[in-house]
Amino acid sequence: MSTTEQDRNISSSFAKGLAVLAVFDAATPSMTLAEIARRTGQDRATARRGALTLVQAGYLRQQGRMLSLTPRVLALAGGFLQANQFGRRVQPVLNQHAAKLETEVTLATLDQGRVLLLAQSTTERGIVTYGFTAGAHIPLAHTSLGRMLLACLPNEDAERAIIQADIPKHTEQSLTRPEAILEQIDAARSQGFSVTDSEFEPGIIGYAVPVSRPDQTPVVVGSSAPRGIDAGRASQRLLQGLQVCAAELRQTEAVNDL
What backbone phi and psi angles, to 5 degrees, belong to 27? Predict the structure, then answer.
């Protein structure tokens, strides 16, 4: 099928409506129509039609000039999670290994130049928590999850992603030169794991290892821990635990079918 034929089968209005849903996040849980238009790159009339359609469908609520997501959007994610049996096959594995490591364990993939969290353990003993939930996005450049995901890609694709990505300075330790970040991605690709130290949150070391195989959609599992006196030993323990967790997840159809 040619590109022209494919374009005829695509509803641009539907795509623009989805773009409206995608602009809401933790930093901007509610927005005006003008803000939605600016963030989606749509003209005001198009953004208005899309937003009001979503209000009528129950995915957005309007209070005065402000619009925000409703709980109905969870049904969209719920369909994916149930279809791939995350509750039965992925969550128990994450919980089991989180309890052993005494820290949160997170499963993630790539989504439009950001890290998308697919699932996260639930444990009461975690020393550090990401503070995010499934469906949340976190940055690529300064997280161990992001760098490991990019290391799962061919070198040219990883380089393109970093060049196109925003590279803010989250902390004093955040690398800002694309060349330096790409060196860390190359190292992760070679050694089979990624470690970041205080680049996203001060005093927090992030760890990530691949779950997916080379021919699959990039999926990684990661964790974090506070920097301590015996950092080397703690790093070895966490990385070994994550590698065991990744090997177990690799056996599940839920991850292999992503």
Answer: -75, -30
Using the CB atoms, write b or e for 74-113: b if 16+ within 10 Å: eeeeeeebeebebeeebbebbbebbbebbbbbbbbbbeeb
HSE-up (13 A, CA, CB side) for residue 176: 6
- Verify that 59 and 170 share a domain, yes or no: no
pLDDT tens-place string over residues 51-66: 999 999 999 999 999 9
Half-sphere exposure at residue 132, Cβ-oriented, CA atoms within 13 angstroms: 22
Using CA atoms, how far residue 51 sits from 137, 233, 250, in Å, is 22, 52, 40
Which pTM value belongs to this model? 0.82
- Rounded mean pLDDT, 58-80: 89
Residue 168: name the closest of 149, 159, 181 by CA.
181
Q: How many domains does the chain have?
A: 2
Q: Return the residue matching tokens 């821990």.
A: 225
Domain of residue 154, CATH code: 3.30.450.40
| pLDDT of 234 above 90 | no
From 23, 53, 70, give the residue that closes a domain. 70
Q: Is 107 helix (H, G, I), strand (E, B) or coil?
A: strand
pLDDT per residue over 9-30, tens digit each? Answer: 667 888 888 899 988 887 789 9
Say how far apart CA 47 and CA 255 lie, in whole Å.
Answer: 35
> What per-residue string of b and e applies to 226-255 under the rule 16 or more CB within 10 Å gives b?
eeeeeeeebbeebbebbbebbebbbebebb
Q: Which helix (H) or strand (E) holds 249?
A: helix 231-250
